[in-house]
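Lab meeting, item 3. Inverse folding demo.
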């Protein structure tokens, strides 16, 4: 492609992105509830907006061309229904002239594929993330956390996100996959770049960041594949590299799958830890209860996933004429499953807006999605959350906020960008 042609393409793409931003802002000003949600500031009242969408019924139609679901049962129905897939989203982007603005390093991974390709690729990666395999790594996971806390021992104050919630899951997934951890902060940044792209690419600068992230991931995992060819291993990278060697996976699929497992393996856990601690600190009695009974850590994790999940929503496209809750849904319809709104469905959960450690007899949340796309890393995320909360309650019982937290930008992923805390008096 010549320089002139490339410049014209960039200008055309910039124009499309600007037109899209203007259109969404205009719909938000006109009162479209989904457009308002998409344009909210980072510290906006997102749960209040979900309730305004819920007021329009369990299936709310947006001028953005989406059907927004706030009902827990309807979200579950769509996520489990094979008539609703994910692959058609690529065709939607292409038709809008922005196909190159995808998910960067994750483009081509099983995150964006339907069966049978999704099934083939996921089957290769899944053994390392099954509950039994994850439980076998529990000692290493906890040792990793203690090393991080030991390094913070001389500091009365630190940032929960930058100093703990980010480096901990980065180190865990790097160890599990066999990725050298030479620059944890850089990996965390790449995770943020890709995570923000889940809301859609809005500028050429963001598109350039994604291209750089893709190049970095390709270089990293390409080099590791060559190393594994010389020195086979049974870590995740070794298993996927072997799948390339025996023809079960292409080189491009290997890079995309490794990128997905690595980046998604820590990005959502960062938010899970921050959201859980924030909820407990908001109601100090809950924190004191965990301190008195650290075995409640798994309960705190599940309630966080219901009450304030790291992944707020996911989308599907009707692959054929179908129905949702008995309502006709034409082929090609874009469906937005608001997982966070589903977790606060008043038809399903008692006092849905209250963070409670005493829930019983209520359906499981949908924070890990559902159906064939149920989160592969759910067992690891649960373990990491439980370990962090239990160990914090044991080692830092006086932990408390030491300043104002700031929310990360974005709609799909929800969490803190910064959360200053102080350790307080250590309990003997």
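The presenter then showed the designed sequence:
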């Amino acid at each position: 492609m010549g320089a002139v042609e490339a410049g014209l393409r960039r200008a055309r793409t910039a124009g499309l992105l600007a037109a899209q931003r203007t259109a969404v802002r205009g719909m938000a000003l006109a009162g479209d509830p989904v457009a308002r949600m998409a344009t909210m500031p980072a510290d906006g009242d997102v749960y209040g907006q979900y309730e305004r969408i819920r007021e329009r019924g369990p299936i709310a139609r947006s001028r953005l061309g989406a059907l927004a679901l706030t009902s827990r049962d309807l979200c579950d129905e769509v996520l489990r229904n094979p008539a609703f897939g994910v692959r058609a989203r690529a065709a939607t982007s292409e038709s809008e002239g922005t196909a190159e603005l995808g998910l960067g390093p994750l483009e081509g991974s099983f995150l964006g594929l339907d069966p049978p390709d999704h099934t083939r690729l996921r089957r290769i990666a899944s053994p390392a993330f099954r509950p039994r395999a994850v439980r076998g790594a529990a000692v290493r996971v906890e040792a990793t956390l203690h090393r991080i806390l030991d390094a913070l021992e001389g500091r009365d104050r630190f940032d929960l996100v930058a100093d703990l919630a980010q480096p901990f899951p980065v180190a865990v997934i790097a160890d599990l996959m066999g990725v050298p951890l030479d620059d944890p902060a850089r990996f965390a940044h790449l995770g943020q770049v890709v995570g923000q792209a889940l809301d859609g690419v809005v500028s050429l600068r963001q598109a350039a960041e994604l291209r750089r992230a893709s190049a970095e991931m390709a270089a990293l995992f390409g080099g590791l594949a060559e190393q594994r060819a010389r020195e086979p291993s049974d870590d995740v990278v070794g298993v996927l590299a072997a799948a390339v060697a025996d023809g079960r996976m292409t080189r491009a699929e290997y890079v995309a799958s490794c990128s997905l497992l690595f980046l998604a393996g820590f990005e959502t856990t960062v938010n899970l830890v921050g959201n859980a601690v924030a909820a407990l600190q908001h109601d100090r009695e809950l924190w004191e209860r965990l301190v008195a009974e650290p075995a409640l850590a798994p309960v705190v994790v599940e309630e966080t996933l219901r009450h304030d999940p790291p992944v707020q929503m996911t989308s599907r496209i009707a692959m054929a004429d179908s129905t949702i809750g008995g309502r006709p849904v034409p082929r090609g319809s874009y469906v937005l499953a608001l997982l966070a709104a589903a977790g606060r469905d008043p038809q399903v959960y008692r006092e849905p807006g209250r963070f409670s450690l005493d829930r019983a007899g209520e359906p499981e949340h949908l924070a890990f999605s559902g159906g064939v796309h149920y989160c592969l890393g759910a067992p690891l995320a649960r373990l990491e959350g439980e370990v962090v909360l239990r160990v914090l309650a044991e080692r830092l019982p006086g932990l408390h906020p030491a300043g104002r937290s700031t929310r990360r930008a974005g709609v799909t992923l929800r969490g803190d960008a910064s959360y200053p805390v102080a350790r307080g008096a250590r309990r003997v």
